[in-house]
Amino acid sequence: MSKQKHNPMIAVTISIVPGLGQLYNRQFIKGTTFLLLTIAFVVSFYQFLNIGYWGLLTLGEIPGLDDSRVLLAQGIISLIITGFAITFYVLNLINAYKEAVKIKHGRKNDDLRKSFKDGWDKSFPYVLVGPGLFLLIFVVVFPLLYMILLAFTDYNLYNSPPKNLLNWVGFENFISLVTVPIWRSTFFSVFSWTVIWTLVATTLQIALALILAIFVNDPRIKFKKFIRTVLILPWAVPAFVTILIFAALFNNDFGAINNDILGPLFNQAIPWMTDPFWSKVALIGIQVWVGFPFVFAIFTGILQSISKDWYEAADMDGASSWQKFKSITFPQVMFATAPILIMQYAGNFNNFNIIYLFNQGGPAVRGQNAGGTDILISWVYNLTFETQNYNMAAAISIVIGLIIAGFAFYQFRRTRSFKEEGEM
């Protein structure tokens, strides 16, 4: 066969069976290896994939014998394995085509040693990231896919495997969130409080951190190091310890805030734990205390990096303190920290620890299956581990994920640091 008649399309066509294209290109070792890997894959995974896809489609047929949860997991693993197989298959086609083009243009195949060396050089980065990618798929992607698929089933306390079989219900769970009265009222109540909690608590902690950072950075302030150390101390204490201490301080019966401050001074006792409004006020205050030191430390570093020449030029132009803050300080701080601040909002949107540790999302609210201070993530926790409404918990988790991803993507796109990334 002449090199000019070597047809790349033939190499691609016969590569429908991996390895044959490489054999056609006279890459006998590579072709044999690909062919053996294909045979080994089919022999090893045919039965597993067959059961996996059957289970994914049916979720079982015999109650008590077929466990829909296991079949769902096996189906997801089958999808992941199939993804790897398709990737290998596509790479096999691309390799067969490229090598056939080289032969057609008169280039000789490299010898085995050079082929191995070139292959190792090209694949070395993938070898390094391979273990991490493998763990990522089975530690992050697999649970995520499992949760997404559960949202389209009827898995709850009254329909639990292996006694019962799960069924695919489509978008019924999502529709229930906005049509069934108890789910609708609870969802919109919890969602609105989650948004308020995120905006108010995060904005206050950022504002407090910025104000304190500007004051401490003022040249007239003495003992700067000591003051900064004191202001960062709340960050040094583990957050869960701080939250538990505040939970004790705000306790209605023995808390120091009622017994030692409000009682003696104002003859008042506020129901911090039993009234939803005051519980929310307390939670926002605690979050501001816990969250501001981290932002303060970032703002302090940014303020110290702003050139003093800008302020001197502003003084020469007769700018006021507010004008210098509005035109120099604030834009520079926001430009440098916008992505981090966006993540502060996203983090507080899912800030489970403070809600649960303070009063487990309580107090109870009539006509709802969530507590008065539950945010979406703590509501999902209660649905999962207390009432075992796994399907609704999964559906709400998808809603949370879409909200967070959409918000973060939109805000990152609008930040100057994102827009000017290629210009710096």
From TrEMBL:
Location(s) in or outside the cell: Cell membrane
Gene3D superfamilies associated with the record: MetI-like
Signal peptide bounds: none
TM region positions: 31-49, 70-91, 126-153, 195-217, 229-250, 281-306, 327-347, 390-410
Molecular function via GO: ABC-type maltose transporter activity
Domain ABC transmembrane type-1: 191-411
Primary localization class, coarse: membrane
Record-linked Pfam families: BPD_transp_1
Mode of membrane association: Multi-pass membrane protein
Keyword DNA-binding tagged: no
Cross-referenced SUPFAM superfamilies: MalF N-terminal region-like, MetI-like
Keywords: Cell membrane, Membrane, Sugar transport, Transmembrane, Transmembrane helix, Transport
GO cellular component: maltose transport complex
One of the GO BP terms on file: maltodextrin transmembrane transport
Highest taxon of source: Bacteria
InterPro entries, per database record: MetI-like, MetI-like_sf
PANTHER family xref list: MALTOSE/MALTODEXTRIN TRANSPORT SYSTEM PERMEASE PROTEIN MALF, MALTOSE_MALTODEXTRIN TRANSPORT SYSTEM PERMEASE PROTEIN MALF
Function: Part of the ABC transporter complex MalEFGK involved in maltose/maltodextrin import. Probably responsible for the translocation of the substrate across the membrane.
UniProt similarity note: Belongs to the binding-protein-dependent transport system permease family. MalFG subfamily.
Protein name as it appears in the record: Maltose/maltodextrin transport system permease protein
Source species: Halobacillus aidingensis
Source organism phylogeny: Bacteria, Bacillati, Bacillota, Bacilli, Bacillales
